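Researcher: Structure for this, please.
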Amino acid sequence: MQQKKKNRFRDTCLTIIVIVLLGCFLHYAQNHFNGYAIQIINLVAVNAILALSMNIIYGFTGMFSLGQAGFMAIGAYVSALCVLTPEQKEMMWILDEIIWPFSTIHTSFFVSVVAGGLITAFISLLIALPVLRLGGDYLGIATLGFAEIIRVVITNATPITNGALGIKGIPLHANMWWNYGWLLFTLYFMIVLLRSNFGNVFKAIRDDEVAAKVMGINTFKYRVISFCIGAFFAGVGGALMGNLITTIDPKMFNFLLTFNILMIVVAGGLGSLTGSILGSVIITVLLEWLRIVEEPMTILNFEIPGIPGMRMVIFAVALLVIILFRREGLMGMREFSWDSVIGFLSRPFNRNKNADTGKEQA
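Model: Predicted structure, token format:
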């Protein structure tokens, strides 16, 4: 018991040190990096939140959901409607005049993000009640259909969303401090949740839903809870994304966006929070770096024309390779722990110690 308390205290201190170092890095990056590098660092945080939101649904509860883009759209539009001033809305809504009460709503950025998450969770509850009675591929198709319905509704609800014109001029509130603050909160919430009885039930449903039902677990209720939690954080991620790029329109929230998030989750490891963080770093950086393949190149005096969309083809092939040859992803279901780090770092010292002990015995 005493040893567990010492380890817990050690882990807390090391975690605080890492958070402080992260804060120092963000402060340095904000003052010394160019705008493009800062944008990628921000996208890493937002994509990590979105990956965690999908992982709680798919990786930890076993529900194959493809509705993240629709949930992101709801969060982004709710946040934008909250942070824009009435004067901005009056000038921007050209095709149809914005209706009340959306024309008068004006809140702080934090309130707008929370509102985006909560409204997304409420709408996801309405979707979950009929849809989560399905399973497997049927659930994936149904959630993908609802995501497309949400996009079509946003396109046609011109008096509220400005229709196909989208919303521009959103204030750039989502800086690195907000994005990484929300990421730390999301990660902490997920850790606490998965260590609780709720997390154990989610994993039991994922591993064997029939056995969970036999044990007396109301699997439908817990599936709905997991679905709504994932939708809440997807709405938060959408709100941060909208305030980061300062412009949104319905075309942004298509299946390709869900595919990118799914790629991060699969590459990092289904059922691993650590994998979602690592996957978001790797995939986000590669997605930006691979833009070079879409531009004209000259190799050994041969001119290769740029092919738009080629980087997504490369990523689709990469996803197939991961599924075929390493289905567990980078981390599998493993998680980062300070015990494993300390054990890895102390391994060379233990070898030297054992070698010295062997010499003395000899």
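Researcher: Any notable elements?
Model: The CA atoms of residues 239 and 273 lie 21 Å apart. Strands lie at 167-168, 247-248, 297-299, 302-304.
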